[in-house]
Amino acid sequence: MKKIKRIGMALMITALAVSANAQKTGKTPEDSVKCIENLSLYQESYKMKNYADAYGPWKEILKYCPGYNKNLYIRGGVILKNMMANAKTGEEQQKYIDELMNMYDLRIQYFGEEGLNKARKAMDLEQLRGTSAVADYYKLYEEAVKIDGENLEASYIYKFFEATIYYVHEKKAEPTLIIDNYDLASTLLEKALKANPDKKADIQVAMANVEAAFSPYASCEQLVDIFGKKYEASPDDLELIKKISNLLESKGCTKTDLFFNTTEKLHAMEPSPESAYMMGNLCLTKQQYGKAAEYLKEAVEGIAEDKKYQAYLRLAYAYQGSRAYSASRSAAYEAAKIDPTKGEPYMIIAALYAESAGSCCGSGPVMSRVAYWAAVDKAIKAKNVEDTPEMTERANKFINTYSRHFPSQTDAFMENIMDGTSFTVGGWIGETTTVRTIK
């Protein structure tokens, strides 16, 4: 009796407090009364964690005033999952699962957040029914990502990609879907990382999970097999070409013919300094030095400042491979201007001088060797400007090697050339250096 009085008192107080809200959310005054009648019963039982008793009145509220408040749906999930856990049969459990799924639809209808709530619905369905329901929950994740992908929590983006893999394994889609959705998930997570630095840790966990899940499908052989067919079918699809080129590059598959072909096609269709730079690098790896030089010359004219140094270095290598020594040196000097702390440009010039020693400056035991003096000078310059163990070791190795090619003291004396004197190396080199001989 006391319990009935207590509930009655709570009902009267609640009625005064929420009647306006209930009337607004109930379709009719009678619906609002039904809502009020069940509200206290549901809330009292829920607070006591008596979810079985809360279930009945909660369903009545959902029926008569489904727009009452968002908390009705948050708590509804707890109630229904508890009912599932205590269900005596599979049929009874499935009944509660269906009610939970319908509840999400109502929540979207009355409180929006469609993308987020579809993702929640998908995750609950996955947890409750496992991969046997992948055809259903994958579609929900897919819809959530399409509707509001840039605002979803990182964990939902990962679950979307994980569901993709199960979906393909169940023969519901072609393997290309894994590639497409990896690209989509990675892009969304990268955007999220830039937009939400305060959530960096969670986003990076999701990114790592996506990469780990994609790893079995990320071999160059598999990517080429999957994308090669798509490229053959649509060789002029610009967006597809961009996707293939970017993905193969990110996965280190730059030595494949498919990467070369798509990147070359991309440059032809949408030329840019960046694509010219990429093509230059690819031609270098194929030892197509003339073509590499053409692309890299195009690249250095407009590429971003943070890439100019590397672009000029590669241009120097391309000219070197073509034996265009003077042009190679000019490109190396441009790189040295951009970053005067690097020794690599001078090591390139040193190599150019050493390579041309036998042909640039004359014949005979002395003049065929004078270029080595200039070459060693550049190696010394390289380790002076870049005082690192790696550059010092490399430069010293070069110096030791080519110092052994200096003219002998006897041969130099016969040409009236003395140790320690100044000497101008002729030909295309045109460098003034110091005479050094082998005693």
Write the layout of secondary structure elements.
Elements: H1 2-25, H2 29-47, H3 51-64, H4 71-85, H5 90-111, H6 114-129, H7 134-148, H8 154-169, H9 176-195, H10 200-214, H11 220-233, H12 238-250, H13 257-269, H14 273-285, H15 289-300, H16 305-321, H17 325-338, H18 344-355, H19 357-360, H20 364-367, H21 371-385, H22 389-403, H23 409-414, E1 422-425, E2 431-434
Helix pairs in contact: 1-2, 2-3, 3-4, 4-5, 5-6, 6-7, 7-8, 8-9, 8-10, 9-10, 11-12, 12-13, 13-14, 14-15, 14-16, 15-16, 16-17, 16-18, 17-18, 18-21, 21-22
Strand order of the largest sheet: 1-2
| Uncertain regions spanning at least 5 consecutive residues | 1-24
What's the shape?
elongated
The total beta strand count reads: 2
The helix fraction, in percent, is over 70%
Residue share in β-strands = under 5%
Descriptive overview:
- The chain has 439 residues and is an all-alpha fold.
- It has a domain at 358-439.
- It is 75% helix and 2% strand.
- The protein contains 23 helices and 2 strands.
- The protein has helices at 2-25, 29-47, 51-64, 71-85, 90-111, 114-129, 134-148, 154-169, 176-195, 200-214, 220-233, 238-250, 257-269, 273-285, 289-300, 305-321, 325-338, 344-355, 357-360, 364-367, 371-385, 389-403, 409-414; strands at residues 422-425, 431-434.
- It has a two-stranded antiparallel sheet.
- The longest helix is centred in the first third of the chain and has 24 residues, at 2-25.
- Mean pLDDT is 88; it is low at 1-24.
